[in-house]
Fold this protein.
Amino acid sequence: MENSVLLHNGSHNHFRFAFSASRVRNSHDYGVNSSKSMFLFPKALNGQAFAGLSSSSEKMINWCSRGQPWRSKCLKATGKDSVEGEDGDESEDALQATIEKSNKVLAMQSDLFQQIEERKKLVSSIKNSIIGAENELVSYNEKDNSFPNMDLASAGGDHADGDYTSGNAHSNEDEISENPPIVVSGGFDEGEKEPGIYLPIEKIRSSVDSPNKSKEASLGEIRSDILPSFLSKPSESFGLKDEKLEELTEASLHGNNEEIVPNKEDVKSPPLAGANVMSIILVAAECAPWSKTGGLGDVAGALPKALARRGHRVMVVAPRYGNYIEAQETGVRRKYKVERQDVEVTYFHAYIDGVDFVFMDSPMFRQFQSNIYGGNRMDILKRMVLFCKAAVEVPWYVPCGGACYGDGNLVFIANDWHTAMLPVYLKAYYRDNGLMKYTRSILVIHNIAHQGRGPVDDFIYMDLPQHYIDIFKLYDPVGGEHLNIFAAGLKTADRVVTVSHGYAWELKTLEGGWGLHGIINENDWKLKGIVNGIDTKEWSPQFDVHLTSDGYTNYSLETLLSGKPQCKAALQKELGLPIRKNVPLIGFIGRLDGQKGVDLIAEAIPWMVGQDVQLVMLGTGRPDLEQLLGQFDSQHPDKVRGLVCFSVKMAHRITAGADILLMPSRFEPCGLNQLYAMSYGTVPVVHAVGGLRDTVQPFDPFNESGLGWTFEMADANKLIHALWNCLLTYREYKSSWEGIQRRGMKQDLSWDNAAQNYEEVLVAAKYQW
Ligand SMILES: Nc1ncnc2c1ncn2[C@@H]1O[C@H](COP(=O)(O)OP(=O)(O)O[C@H]2O[C@H](CO)[C@@H](O)[C@H](O)[C@H]2O)[C@@H](O)[C@H]1O
């Protein structure tokens, strides 16, 4: 059994279990489409909210100053016309009182405006004095009559992200040295006495780790007494001047706000995370909307925002595969040894929805813009070594909003095998040396089928002390002893999360663990399943930007019965399928590989085309499966569309226009498409496995409960049986169908629940020794 599983895995990757070429996507296309939806929509929404607010306050002023005419209208509206004659005096009194109240409100308003003006002036003078003192910027008056990046809220001490740190004000980018010196670090070759890790912020660390220790003493002591010989101070400095970095990080750790006593009115409610507020750095090889080949990108783009909403200071670190217009260059430059070569990285930064997005730029990433997992096995390995080595140091070198994160209350969230080396570097380079002692690492398993496997000899590229080789070694019945990056990460991380409860269970089985079940069982105590959420800004039928043209329309629970059929007709038209209201339209969206069960659909196709149905399949991946899609399309042009491309827009439109979403995945750690489908009133038919089992409760016609149809085995006949029942309900039991749709749409599938669960894991890790 194990052999067959492993052979199957081995057929589609570079690292044997590693990702396949089929994961290659056009991330550029995706980025463009998706960034539109992510960034234009919130602006539009804010714009509306603001417009609404200003027009209503305008109305109020007009209303109060006009005197009598509003009165009869108001009375009519309250139905009091008829009683005016009876107690006219009382009404007059009430009227007088209202006018007085209104006048008071107006007076308060004008007072407020005056205060705002005064505060503006104060802010201006503070800014001027800073500018003058640093002698780095020309006076804003000479440049421009307004302050860039200066907002009244932050000036007044009212931090938009919660007040847990004052270091997150995003207005000090100018403090970063524009042309910092470049240094080399991370040379872990024992033979070479190359410059190694240098931690510029020993003062801060020592004050956090051991407050009684003299700050000055700590740096020297740690270097000479604790660091192994392969770790030494570089001769030069780094991206920032030490003193500047110290200042910044001091500010980030201590808030520097002891003197600021907020007014009572300014005190905001505490963050949801309460006393558990942490600095969180999520590190992932892809991050939507900038780069995405699948669900990992979605998670890296959305989970951090939900964690930030709870009050945490959150950063995402991802490679910069292309030019991302939102991100500004920080000026920080570092060099790392990769296969004994110095590789330079620079950093770009964007602050969006409360999250610091830090993009690591290097020629090693840039050439893979449209193929982020491209290249041969060694190329990928080296890229990920560079990424993880540099990512561990981001909290020390990359200031976000003027202040580095430092290591106070810091936790890293690594994702899948690509970043599974991060917990290992954190331990080997820092914690083994008494540094970053309280920093924790969580490793999230999105897909155990890709593990970063290679020959044991590849260990040389890891740049780690020799004794670390043991945690990478794994015996495989097919390939013998090999090097396994995921295995090392699982053993080293403080906690392990996977993306559903069902998958957490499956990972511990021979069939579901893909060779890592032994290690997962041994580390069961630190494993937790947390079901993914969905980004409700990006995936909501009510606000979906991809449904605003070409005949599509936004819809909600209230407009389901008109909006969804309109989207269906638009989809049929766009795909060139017959526009028919009552024909069930079935959708499939996903990577075309063994995981997604495309072969089961292929087996079921003859039955499906014998039914009065339409089928649209969107995906890219394995060439043979891509070919299969083309074949379905050409053989059944009136019923089947096979779209071999990566199109976010089309994914959204299929999700809205289809009646049914088919997910016959052989295994599915969580699955996002069924969640998107349910929130769009599209009914899922899924193989009951992993996260699909957790999230799609089967329809029960007796109790009118449930969300879709499930089948228990990855078998074409089982799929057909479930689909047959589904089609029957669609055709014959309209009200049951509508009930399923509405229950799906009513669920709270947002990331907020998941973020709370992640927080529990982070806190557990924090207090674990
Ligand atoms: N051709 C195409 N065009 C446009 N968009 C396309 C597309 N093909 C796929 N997508 C999109 O990519 C994402 C795929 O998400 P999934 O969770 O289904 O899959 P994936 O297997 O990649 O993720 C892994 O990680 C996630 C996150 O944890 C787990 O949910 C999942 O089970 C696990 O396998 C969806 O947003 C989907 O719309």
In short: The chain is about 45% helix and 15% strand. The first strand starts at residue 184 and ends at 185.
